[in-house]
Each structure stands twice: as structure tokens, then as C-alpha cells.
Specification:
- The chain is of the alpha+beta class.
- The chain has helices spanning 22-40, 48-60, 63-76, 79-82, 90-99, 104-109, 119-148, 177-190, 212-238, 490-509, 542-558, 572-582, and strands spanning 5-7, 13-15, 163-169, 194-198, 205-210, 240-247, 251-253, 261-264, 277-287, 298-308, 316-321, 326-328, 331-348, 353-358, 362-363, 370-376, 384-391, 394-396, 402-404, 413-420, 442-443, 454-457, 461-463, 469-486, 512-521, 527-536, 567-569.
- Strands 6, 8, 12, 13, 14, 23 and 24 form a seven-stranded antiparallel beta sheet that branches.
- α3 (63-76) packs antiparallel against α7 (119-148) and α7 (119-148) runs antiparallel to α9 (212-238).
- The protein is elongated.
- It starts with a strand and ends with a helix.
Length: 583
Amino acid sequence: MTDTKTENQNGHEAPKSAKPSKQSKASKAAGNRGKQAKRTDVVLPTLGPLGMLRWAWTQLTSMKTALFLLLLLAVAAVPGSLFPQRPANPAIVTQYLKDHADYGPILDKLQMFDVYSSAWFSAVYLLLFISLIGCVVPRAIAHWKSWRSKPPRTPARLSRLPVYGTLVVPAEAGLTASDAAVQAAALLKKRGYRVDLRSAGDLPSVGAEKGYLKELGNLCFHSGLVGVLVSVAVGGLFGYSGQRTLVEGETFVNTLVGYDTFNPGSNFQSGWLAPYSFRLDKFDVRYDRESVKQFGQPLDFTAHVTTKDSPDAPEKQQDVKVNDPLSIGGTNVYLVGNGYAPVVTVRGGDGKIAFQGPVPAIPTDAVYTSTIVIKAPDAKPGQLGFVGFFLPTAEKGANNVAFSADPDPLNAQLNLNSYIGNLGLDKGTPQNVYALDVAKLTQVNGRDKPAGGIVLGAGQSYTLPDGQGSISFDGLKRYVALDVHHNPGQEWALGFALFSLAGLIASLFLTRRRLWVRAGNHEDGRTMVEYGLITRGEDHGGLGAEGKSVRAALAMAWGVPDDGPNEQTKNPQNAIDSTQKDA
């Protein structure tokens, strides 16, 4: 055998196994890079407009996107609680813009004062709505098809299922394999399974499945969420709410000017207000006068009203209580507060009446110690204002300071300081009726003034110094604070919420199971029966109990003594994998 040799550049022969030169290594490396470049230089096909839309729709309707949008909606609602909202109180927003002239206009452009009707909040809301619909509709179609389809075919090896068992019916029973399959199908159907009888061949079998309500409950849960979103949107668009303080004897008419404050929906029209009215006839409060520890605590509040559904409708006597609203004209009228309204008369220095009527006082404690503000802009020669407090049952305490000892008006008393000057009402700028800006006013009465403070009992009057006017305490009435709500989507929202809750309960506590029974005839005449069960999702031990119940029912139907569960429990995941391979 001769060695093969090559000749180098100097004419010498070299064995073929000699190491290649650096140049040959470089050329081979370059060739390999060229091959790799050819392998990796793959041009991906373009999706095109339709493909991009399909991809975007797939991303939008994924459950991950729906959860992200739900979290984003919660975050987007945070500015609504940090900044004053224009629909709730435009005056506060105007004052906020004046107080923060540097960054207030920027926030206004970002719609921070109209969060719930802003473009960005509405975009997140609509995207969440579309995402939920996109999640629910395809799943509903797939579930409908699955519901109408037959149970999966019987696996070749039932012994690989998580729960497996066998029964032997003796030859004396005269039960054939076909009869066993038919009777097993009837028994499983009574247990709520949807069955499919496969009687062809020597080994007839039954495929059964139940628990479709679990997935249906999941769909109902998501559909209910969509319904809640729609109902909330309808309420926000077409509903309204308003507040009114009503003194005994006064009448409320459901018009825009009849409200103290009014918060309309985004698309609400004033012409939609129902033409009803009601009058506060009397307000009764019942206090605890028997127990020692709870003495003086309120037991019941009742507002007696006379209602009319329309101007021509007959009057009806009705009551409004706490947590028992008045339903009229498609609205609910809630009793949210109450207090005393002293009836006063203010006269100017010319003796003419500048103000007369009840003035609501704001309670500050359980015994109705109340703050009160009285404004008389028509008084002459100077406008008059009074600030002080009202005591239902006045008593003197330490340092001769008056306080209220009881919430009932046993010794009603007004304690006031008076001011004179321009009250600022002539400019037409809205003011808080329960507050008086005394910065530019001259104080006439007060504890630290020579004239002293004004103390009035029921039926008493006081003349201001220097002929500036007078004030009298003429009587006492009660008033109520009412909230009027109209939400056309409220009942629908409640219904969808209950519907969603029922679906959630069904999806959590129902279990989807599959069961197969296969029978065969032995040579000696016995009928051999085997069964297997598997679950979809978590069952938490219920599958084994179901297997025992099915075994007991089959044994009882065929008169076979149940000598114990001839069952074996395997790894559920391995069983599922193997079953899918068999199927």
C-alpha cells in the first residue's frame, strides 16, 4: 500500500494529512459564512392591511389585553378624585383655576376637570367594552359548537385515566355487552350526563360528558360585565342628580330652577324632567327618652310630603324615611339630612323689611348645635350680614358660655354677630349661602365689641346700634336635605351584576367531567365492564367520589355486589396527555 502525497511550492512532496495553510482556513471560513448568510437571509412575508387588522383585533380581544384595560380604567379614574369635577360643581373648578393660574389651564386642556367625559377616559372605556365583546363572542360560538357535538370517542386504554374501575357481571345474570352499554347510557343520562352510545363492534361503549354549565357560567360572567358597562354608560349619559334643601311648608317643583345644585349626564336634556312636585308638610324626629346611655339619640326621621305626579294630578300623602326613598316621576328622592330653620326678620335703618323667612342652620353635633348665616343685601343705609350659631335647648356652662343640652327645641336661642358693608351680591358672582366673607365688612356686634353679641330667644328682637336696623327671631321650623337621583341604567346594572355573579358562582363550583363505559363478553359468558373518568380543570378530589358513585349505581343496576372500589388514581396530567394521544 502506497501513501498518497502532494507537491508543495518548493517541489517537495507532502503527505495529504498535513495541516492546511492559514489561507485555506480563511477561504473555508468565508465559504461557511456565505452559506450561513444564505440560510438566514429569509424574507418574511408582509401582513398587508388586512393582516395587520386581523393581528390588531387578535391582540385587542385577548384576555391579557382585557385585564390590562380594566386596570388602566381604574388608574384613569384616579384624577377624578384628585381634582374638582366641572359637572359636580363648576364654581369650585372656576375657583381652582383662579388659585392655580400657572398650571390650572394645562390641567383643563388635559380634561382633568372633566375626567369621566374626557376623550382619553372614554377611549379606554370603549376599548375595554370592545375587548370584552371580542373575548365573549368567539368563546360563545365555540362553546355552542362544543355543546352540540358528541362526547369524544372512547379511548383505547381506559386504564390510563385518572379514575378507572372494572365490574364483572356473572353469566347467570344474562346481561350481554350491548345491553350493558344501553343500561349504562340510561343510568348516566339520569345523572345529568350527555351520552353517546357506541354499540358497533364486539366492545360497545358509552361516551358521556357533563359540566357544560361551567363554561356557560364563565361566559355569563363576562357577558354580565359587558352589560354592567353598558348600563353604567347609559346612566352617565342620560341620568342626572340634584340636591335641594326644603323647609316645612315649601314646595319643590322638578325643574332646573327648583334645585340648589344639579348634575346632569353628558347627553341629558332639561326637557326630560318629569313634571312632578311635592310639598314638605311636616318633619318628625323621634328621640330615645327612656334609656340612660342612649338618651337623646334619634330613633326615627320621617318627612311627611304631599306629592303630585303632574300639575293636574291628584295629591297623595306619602312619607320619606332614611333608606326608604320616595319614588316619583322615574326618580328616587332620598332623605340625607335635616336641621332647624329659624324664622327671622331683618329690617334696615329705614324700618323697611330687608329679609324675612326661615334660614337653614347647619348642625355640627348630635344635639343640633348649628351654625347660621343671614344675609340682607336690601337693607339700607348699609347691607347687613349676621353670623352665629343656633341652640335648640340653650343652657349656660363654664365661663358663661352657652351650649345646647338637647336636640329638641326646648329653649331655642340665636347667638349672632352682625356686620355691615357690601356683601358682594350685587355683582352676580355666585356665593355660598352658608358662609359670609367678613374681610371687607365692618363688625357691629360681637363679644369684643361695646354693643356685645346678639342673643335672641323665640319671639325676641334686637335693634342694632346707630340706627342701622334690627333683627327678630319670629319662630322655628324644620328642614330636610334631599338628594334626587334619576339613573335609567341603575336597574339594568343591578340585573347584570346579579347575572354576572351567578355566572361566576357556576364557573367556580361546577366541574366539567368526561366518562366512558366499555363492555365486552368473556368466553365463559361473563360480561366484563370497565369505566374511566377524567376532568377538565381542577376537581379537588370530586372525581374520585364521582367514580365511586357511578360504580355503585352500575353495580346496583346489574345486581353485582359492590366489593369495594376497584379503582386506581394516576397523575391527572399524564392521564390527560395519554388520553389525548389515544383520541
